[in-house]
Input
Amino acid sequence: MHLYPAGAADSADIELLLDAAFEPGRHTRTAYRLRDGVAPYRGLSLVARERGRLVGSIQYWPCELWDGASARHLTLLGPVAVAPDLQGTGLGKRLMRASLEVADACRHDAIVLIGDPEYYGRFGFDAAATADWDVPGPVERHRLLARLAPGVELPARGQLRAVSSVRAWMRLPLPIREVALAA
Ligand SMILES: CC(C)(COP(=O)(O)OP(=O)(O)OC[C@H]1O[C@@H](n2cnc3c(N)ncnc32)[C@H](O)[C@@H]1OP(=O)(O)O)[C@@H](O)C(=O)NCCC(=O)NCCS
Output
């Protein structure tokens, strides 16, 4: 089982994996509206392949928090998915740890997601910063989570949304290091 930076050639396999891992209708989820028209971060998004078969994927995207005056760049995590026959074997945790190590090295200082706090809490995510944010669709408040680097504070109120300008692209992560993937 090896982890690789996800590339454009992985897109079709990733979609098949997501179809297998999630219920039908996943495209209507609020998280998808946060990345409308946006491409995933190359270098940070990873795939896992076993003898060529794509069995795991984790994706990251630029998004932003608009506070009425300015837009604060954030990094959106998700989805993370593991092939149904390999769930519970530690691959999800491995994808999370390897990609978060790269995210930290590349100074992605505020990562947000919509997901189960019971799962993501172990990686440093909680709902403390997000209680009063607006989101473009229904969300259970306790599932809107953020992971902030030490000392980082975000606006208490704001609108979480897809990036509205090309500024976000200026924060592309550094090239991934092989040593990070070997972890
Ligand atoms: C969620 C998912 C990515 C986890 O990956 P995985 O390889 O199955 O999980 P791991 O083996 O790394 O970790 C297992 C641990 O996670 C916990 N866990 C798995 N899914 C969980 C969930 N939805 N909520 C809470 N805990 C969960 C297990 O209880 C186990 O806990 P333990 O370490 O305390 O025993 C995978 O199960 C999956 O693809 N699920 C379907 C898609 C999905 O729901 N994705 C997440 C939303 S974006």
